[in-house]
Every structure is written in structure tokens, then in C-alpha cells.
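Run log, item B.
One chain of 191 residues. Sequence copied directly from the ordering sheet:
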Amino acid sequence: ILVNNVPHGSVSREIFWSDVTGKWERCIVYTPPGYMKNSEAYPVLYLQHGMWGNEFDWTLKGNLLGIMDSLLRAGAVREMVVIMPDNCPGRPTSEEEKANATTGEWEANFATFMAEAESEYRISAEPAQRAIAGLSMGGYHTMRVSYVLDGQFEYVAMFSPATFVHNAPTRPRVFWLAIGTEDFLWESFQE
């Protein structure tokens, strides 16, 4: 759903080869209005979907385009590039692979993924200009990636992450965890 009377950003789909997974990987990229008209480097948010989802979830189910355009118009956020990867490495094809989505393969692939994104888009490589966030399984990946690549993200956010918060990164400016008391994962966070 697009909001009328606001400048609109663009959404594109990217496909890239991963030497880590040995497969083609996919992502959706949001660029803000005016991105094509200048040469500046933008802050970046890596936004990861939940279990059984894919790279389209934040745009098709979450209305990211309409939300970002409206927030930008209201001055509530800075212009940024939002990259939504398919964080199920190699897109699992069997039920066994789907059930084993936390093998660490995605974390190993993420540095390569970031380098690819930085070579294709004008996004900053400075940790102060990088954020990573995720929902459910994407929250798990967010916690793991921010720990494995400690110091690479100043902003880390997890929404109902499918994990306990252990091995957290040591250096982010903002480390945010959101989970509701009615969430089935709530109990695991009370231990």
C-alpha cells in the first residue's frame, strides 16, 4: 500500500552468487526517493524475515515501502537503504533443511553478503551507519550476525527473536529487544 502525496522510494530484487553457500542468494532492496539523483553514501538497515518467510515479507506483508516513504516525509527517520535478504541460506528445499535454519551458515555468509551489497549500492561501510534487525528467526540471525561481526553494527534490534539473548555484541550504540508477554517465546526470556 502506497501513501499518496509523498515521494516514493524504489524496491528492486537482487540475486548474487555466494561462495559460502555455493548457491544463488536473493534480497530485496529499498532505496529512498532521490537515491538515483545524487552520489552520496547512505546509511543501511539489514532487515531479516522470520521462519518460513522470504525476502519479500517486509515489502509484501509489512508494507515497508509505504512505511518508509511516510516516515521520511514526516522527518521521523533519515534517508537510508534497507536491504532485506532471504536469510534462509540457499533457500532450504526439504523439511529437514527448513528445520535446521540455525546452522550458522547464514552468519558465515553475512560478511560476504554485506561486501556484495556495498559494491552494488551506495551504502556506508561505517559501523555508525549500519543497522541490523530481524523478526523471530531473523532476530536469531540478527543476534548471531551482530556477535560474529562484533563492532560492525552500531544499531541492533530483535523483534520476538527465536533465541535466548546470549553472546550479544559488545559495541552497539543501540541494542533493542522487543517481545510481548503473550508471545510464545516470552517464557524462554524469563529464565
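Observations after the first pass:
- The chain is about 25% helix and 25% strand.
- The CA atoms of residues 92 and 98 lie 5 Å apart.
Flagged for discussion on Thursday.
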